[in-house]
């Protein structure tokens, strides 16, 4: 026999409703949070400038180097002051000697003219007048290039000899024939002309003044012109043509004075030997006296032309 299912057991409580069980679906998955929006693009910030390194501190000079620099500065200032004093003394000596020699020569020329002493009548038949001028130029060359002659007392004696030679030359030419009023006028003209030339040589720019090359060229040209004039006078016999030689000589003497003044004031050379003052004073005095002869010759020939007219 088959076992039967036992009858259901009566329940005493409320019975649950029978039926099919309903199951709730699982909640949908939460969506992932949205990604944060990217920040707006901005201009790139320039990198900060590199920090400048602090300037290196100056090394402190040792005491010995500082003292050496101070000594060098003091020596430089002292040498500059000594150069200025040397230049001042040089100028004083040059112009004092120049004034003494020139005054001595002018006194002799005035005395000879007042006493009517004509060396042309006394010496020229034996010794031509130009020989005295050549001797004076030779003494200047000796004073310039001979070492022993450029020291005292030889340089002073040579300076006196140079001036005396030029005085004899002037008194052999037209100076004794100039009238007394014209004698004073010639001396004043020569003095004023020399002062003007000195001022020009001191203050004018060097570009406007004669230099070494220019003086060499002018010297050669003047020599050629003067020799040509004397040859023409010798062949022609017309002595009045010599006034052209006098004019050329006046221009050359003025140019040489301009050049000499620039050398005296050390505008061309920074250093001048302390014994060169006698040489420079002698050259200036010789040119001063020579210009007296040139102007007296021009005056005499001008008077002759006026008398003929």
Short recap of the structure:
Keywords: Membrane, Transmembrane, Transmembrane helix. This protein has 309 residues and is mainly α.
Question: Which key terms come to mind for this protein?
Answer:
single chain; 309 residues; mainly alpha; 64% helix; elongated; membrane; transmembrane; transmembrane helix
Describe the structure.
The chain crosses the membrane at residues 91-110, 130-149, 182-206, 213-235, 241-265, 277-299. It is a single chain. By secondary structure, this protein is mostly helical. It has one domain (81-308). It is 64% helix and 0% strand. The mean pLDDT is 76.
Write the layout of secondary structure elements.
Blueprint: H1 63-114, H2 119-122, H3 129-145, H4 154-172, H5 180-203, H6 212-236, H7 242-264, H8 276-308
Mean pLDDT: 76
Total strand segments:
0
What's the domain count?
1
Helix content: 55-70%
Counting H and I runs of at least 4 residues, what is the number of helices? Answer: 8
Largest sheet: none
Distance between the termini: 203 Å
Spans of at least 5 consecutive residues whose pLDDT stays below 50 are: none
Overall radius of gyration: 55 Å
Measured by DSSP, the beta-strand proportion falls in under 5%
- Shape descriptor reads elongated
- The H-and-E topology, N to C, reads as HHHHHHHH
Structural class of the helices, strands and pairings? Answer: mainly alpha
InterPro entries: MFS_trans_sf
Region (Disordered): 1-73
Transmembrane segments: 91-110, 130-149, 182-206, 213-235, 241-265, 277-299
Biased composition (Pro residues): 1-10, 24-59
């Amino acid at each position: 026999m088959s076992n039967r299912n036992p009858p259901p057991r009566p329940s005493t409580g409320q019975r649950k409703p029978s039926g099919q069980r309903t199951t709730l679906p699982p909640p949908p998955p939460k969506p992932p949070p949205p990604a944060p929006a990217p920040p707006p693009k901005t201009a790139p910030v320039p990198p900060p400038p590199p920090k400048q390194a602090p300037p290196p501190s100056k090394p402190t000079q040792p005491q010995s180097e500082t003292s050496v620099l101070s000594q060098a500065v003091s020596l430089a200032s002292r040498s500059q002051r000594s150069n200025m004093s040397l230049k001042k003394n040089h100028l004083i000596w040059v112009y004092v000697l120049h004034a003494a020699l020139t005054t001595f020569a002018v006194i002799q020329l005035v005395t000879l003219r007042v006493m009517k002493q004509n060396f042309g009548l006394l010496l020229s038949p034996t010794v031509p007048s130009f020989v005295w001028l050549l001797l004076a130029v030779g003494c200047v060359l000796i004073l310039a290039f001979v070492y022993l002659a450029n020291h005292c007392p030889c340089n002073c004696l040579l300076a006196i000899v140079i001036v005396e030679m030029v005085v004899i030359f002037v008194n052999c030419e037209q100076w004794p024939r100039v009238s007394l009023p014209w004698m004073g006028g010639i001396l004043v003209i020569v003095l004023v002309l020399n002062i003007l030339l000195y001022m020009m040589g001191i203050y004018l720019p060097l570009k406007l003044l004669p230099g070494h090359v220019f003086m060499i060229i002018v010297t050669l040209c003047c020599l050629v012109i003067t020799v040509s004039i004397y040859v023409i006078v010798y062949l022609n016999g017309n002595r009045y043509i010599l006034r052209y030689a006098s004019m050329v000589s006046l221009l050359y003497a003025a140019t040489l004075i301009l050049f000499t003044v620039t050398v005296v004031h050390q505008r061309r050379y920074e250093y001048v030997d302390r014994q060169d003052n006698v040489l420079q004073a002698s050259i200036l005095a010789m040119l001063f006296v020579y210009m007296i002869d040139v102007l007296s010759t021009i005056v005499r020939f001008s008077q002759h032309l006026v008398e003929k007219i």
